[in-house]
Amino acid sequence: MQAVIVSSFGGSDVLQVVERAEPAPGPGQVLIQVEAAGVGYVDVTARNGDYQPLPEPGFVPGVEAAGTVVAVGAAVDERWVGRRVFALGRNGAYAEAVVADLCDVVRLPDGVGAVDAVALGVNALVAHLALRRAHVEEGERVLVRGAGGGIGLMAAQLAAASGGVVTAITSSPERGERLRGLGVTHVRDRTAGRDGGAETYDVVVDPVAGAELGRHIEALRPNGRYLLVGAAGGAPAPDAFAGIMTTYHNSPSLFAFSLNSVDAATVGQAAAELFGRADRGALRAVVEERIPLAEARRAHERLESTPVFGKIVLRP
Ligand SMILES: NC(=O)c1ccc[n+]([C@@H]2O[C@H](COP(=O)([O-])OP(=O)(O)OC[C@H]3O[C@@H](n4cnc5c(N)ncnc54)[C@H](OP(=O)(O)O)[C@@H]3O)[C@@H](O)[C@H]2O)c1
User: Tell me, which fold does domain 2-112+285-315 have in CATH?
Assistant: First the structure.
């Protein structure tokens, strides 16, 4: 099969297209013929050698794949063969076929294609499982930072679907208009001066962190919930969390959320629910670009250059 490997840790030029023997599914595993693989920052950090546990160079990157089961290992029901599935694993998805543990595999509804499945993938899971902790109620004001990014796009849609009145912070009027089309009520352009003003929010979803984290914590209303889910804008200042103490009498809550802390069964249930919503038209996958597998290098360069709006998807 054709696969893309990280030949040594470094820039996008370390991605090489190679011919590899198809992997064989072991006990409790399935072999998936890949139709779409998601491209995300986790792959970039794996490529750079910044992601733990560190695999040996020569590994196939990619944690999200969707396609059809073509073989099963011992102790797996043969009826899995032929099923369309999504799998979230530990590398291996940038290939024509990937092996996955059955506990990491979710069946796809008929109405959700492979490209849409990986476009929802990790981003929708992070947004959904983090927002669950905030219990957004009807009419609550929700601020989404980095709203035009992968996690932000999903958080904005899911918060609006919960009845939240969503304000999106993004970086251009065009991105703002696209966000309005996904259910966002108010848009703030972070490139046009200060993006917060005196507005306050019941819930803040923050995949950005960076130097502005502190003042967004201070924008919480009484009993507000702050969901820190990433750091696309870099590490926050050392005193960024001081607002928790200065607004203490408002009972603010701070949740730091990583998908890595969630067990496979919970991830699987959440994925099934999200794919169900997409199947009913209640959640939209957003795809920035479909790129042939052999051009994985270009996919990484695209991700690391100008901001994307939605997922970059590799197609074998
Ligand atoms: N919690 C988890 O389990 C989990 C899982 C996967 C990834 N992550 C992390 O979550 C973060 C976001 O991931 P993502 O896939 O959503 O990334 P992404 O697609 O690059 O989106 C990040 C967005 O943040 C905004 N942004 C970027 N730099 C900024 C800056 N300096 N100041 C303000 N806003 C900025 C941009 O949105 P606008 O242009 O629209 O403003 C950008 O599109 C990353 O740090 C990633 O590693 C966390």
Answer: Quinone Oxidoreductase; Chain A, domain 1 (3.90.180)
Determine if ligand 1 sits within 6 Å of the CB of residue 149. yes
Over residues 143-181, the pLDDT tens digits come to 999 999 999 999 999 999 999 999 999 999 999 999 999
Question: What residue ranges of the chain are covered by domains with CATH 3.40.50.720?
Answer: 122-259
If one counts every other C-beta atom within 10 angstroms of the C-beta of residue 130, the result is 26
Q: What are the pLDDT digits (tens) for 116-152? A: 999 999 999 999 999 999 999 999 999 999 999 999 9
Query: Cα–Cα distance between 145 and 231 in angstroms, integer?
Result: 11
Report the half-sphere exposure of 19 (CA within 13 A, side-chain side).
Answer: 0
CATH superfamily of 122-259: NAD(P)-binding Rossmann-like Domain (3.40.50.720)
Handedness of CA 119, 29, 110, 314 (dihedral sign): positive
Is residue 232 in contact with ligand 1, taking CB distance under 6 Å?
A: yes
Cβ of 40 less than 6 Å from ligand 1: yes
65 C-alpha to ligand 1 centroid (Å) = 21
Q: Locate the ligand 1 atom nearest the alpha carbon of residue 168 and give its number.
A: 40
DSSP character string of 97-110 = EEEEEGGGEEEPPT
Indicate whether residue 144 lines ligand 1 (CB < 6 A).
Answer: no
- Pocket flag, ligand 1, residue 109 (CB < 6 Å): no
List where CATH 3.90.180.10 sits in the chain.
Answer: 2-112+285-315
The best mutation among 64, 133, 169, 171 to test binding of ligand 1, ranked by most ligand atoms within 8 Å of the C-beta, falls on 171
- Condensed to tens digits (0 to 9), the pLDDT of residues 77-93 reads 999 999 999 999 889 99
Please choose, from the candidates 85, 75, 74, 45, the residue with its C-alpha nearest in 3D space to the C-alpha of residue 61: 45
Q: Is the CB of 150 under 6 A from ligand 1?
A: yes
